[in-house]
Amino acid sequence: MKQKAGFLLHLVCGVLAVFLNSSVVKAEDPYKFYTWTVTYGTLSPLGVPQQVILINGQFPGPTLDVVTNDNIILNLINKLDQPFLLTWNGIKQRKNSWQDGVLGTNCPILPNSNYTYKFQTKDQIGSFTYFPSTQFHKAAGGFGGINVYARPRIPVPYPIPDGDFTLLAGDWYNTSHKALQQSLDSGKSLPFPSGVLINGHTSNTFSGDQGKTYMFRISNVGLSTSLNFRIEGHKLKLVECEGSHPIQNIYDSLDIHVGQSISVLVTLNQAPKDYYIVASTRFTRRVLTATSVIHYTNSHTSVSGPVPAGPTYQIHWSMKQARTFRWNLIANAARPNPQGSFHYGHVTPTKTIVLANSAPLINGKQRYAFNRVSYVNPDTPLKLADYFNIPGVFSLDSIQTVPSDGSAFVGTPVMPVSHHDFIEIVFQNNENSVQSMHLDGYDFWVVGYGSGPWTPAKRRTYNLVDALTRHTAQVYPNSWTTILVSLDNQGMWNLRSAIWERQYLGQQFYLRVWDPVQSLYNEYNIPSNALLCGKALGRNA
């Protein structure tokens, strides 16, 4: 018996020695360092001089080109006259909602001060964006692309393209962001946009060689309007969607809703000349259009003739297209194992949450709400209030998990959920406009779209085999969208409308993903450089 115990002790010590030695030898994931300065500038994106937000003098801001698992150390210096934050749209911030950059998790960076974000692109690939989360700064710019490339040893399910273009498209207002915010604060809605921009301009030129294939990473960075994207005479092969590898269907054009990102491969297989690239508004009475050019390097012929028209069919066409976005079950994403190795359709949800969006008047002013509650930001970020056990900052019971009758009201709702739960969220849109819903900290399976009111019987229509995962899902007018979420990321996470007027006026709340066992395995500690404000001032981080 003693001999056996001695052998086991020797074995355990040997395993520990190997583990410790491998830990020492193993190289740490790379670090990338950035310093960004946020300033105002005067530009004329639509021909009218206006104040815009620049990052390092650029509009849009610099593109973050990084690799899976890179550690990002980004010092952000605020030279504006207002507090400011950036949020990293689609970056999951694993175990680290401290770095999410929204007012529920972070104190804003005061004028003439700085904050250093420290986060990792842990187990992610794909096309994402960043943008300001404070006040109505997003209407002035401050946004940019985030491209997360696969590690060299992890194959991607398509040939490496010959080039890579980032296209940030979105609606734009000639009115200043401060004037737009004042209008919203007075109880008015936003007017119709003034135009559409691609990469901050009404026209750009992208050059490529005939016969070669290029990746176009396209994001809708606008405030309110769905877009349709197309390239004259060329097919679009969908190869990535917000970190997922889909079945590689071929499209003539693609609808991209507010906050969403996709990547397509385009082969320059036409006669050598210049061709239109088009982004135009969808589901609007008046169609706004931005055009750019794909220029064959051996072309001697400029673009000419009418701009290619977008789809004439509306909601039904778009919903049918959305249902064709399906997961490639045998392809890997950031990890070497196939995406389809997690059989989400076999997991029974532990909770169902039905969220009805609405546009109520509260105290005579326009507001927006989920399940009758219109969110207001407190002076103290929810994450700090939770960490320091500060009472009276948020409510855990003001928002219900199903819609109910009654008047809308303002509050600071947080919905408690348990770490490692698997939940079903139904977005019920009883309004006449397309909605776009985003969840920080996660991607989720978009398992169903349907018209009319959702009922439990609609579950029979769900795609429980190869639904795509993404971080932002559209909800069509008088329709519903269902997502499934595996709550594997502890923290305080913002669930919001990606349509920025609605977010600003209350259509958001937070999920508190909680585990009674507190450990660094589940969530990182508060950063040593965390900014403190509100009732957290004077506390020790």
What does this structure look like?
This protein is mainly beta and 541 residues long. The chain is built from five helices and 34 strands. The protein has helices at residues 2-25, 177-185, 315-323, 382-387, 500-504, and strands at 31-43, 50-55, 64-67, 71-78, 86-89, 113-120, 126-132, 144-149, 163-172, 195-198, 205-208, 213-220, 227-231, 236-240, 250-251, 253-256, 261-267, 274-281, 289-296, 351-358, 361-362, 365-366, 369-370, 373-375, 409-411, 414-418, 422-429, 435-439, 444-451, 469-470, 472-475, 479-486, 491-497, 508-514. The protein has a six-stranded mixed β-sheet, with no helix packed on it. A six-stranded mixed β-sheet has the order 23-20-27-32-29-30. The protein has a five-stranded mixed β-sheet with strand order 11-19-18-13-16. 44% of the residues are buried.
Features:
Immunoglobulin-like; globular; 6-stranded mixed beta sheet; mainly beta; 541 residues; 34 strands; glycoprotein; L-ascorbate oxidase homolog; 5 helices; single chain; disordered N terminus; 10% helix
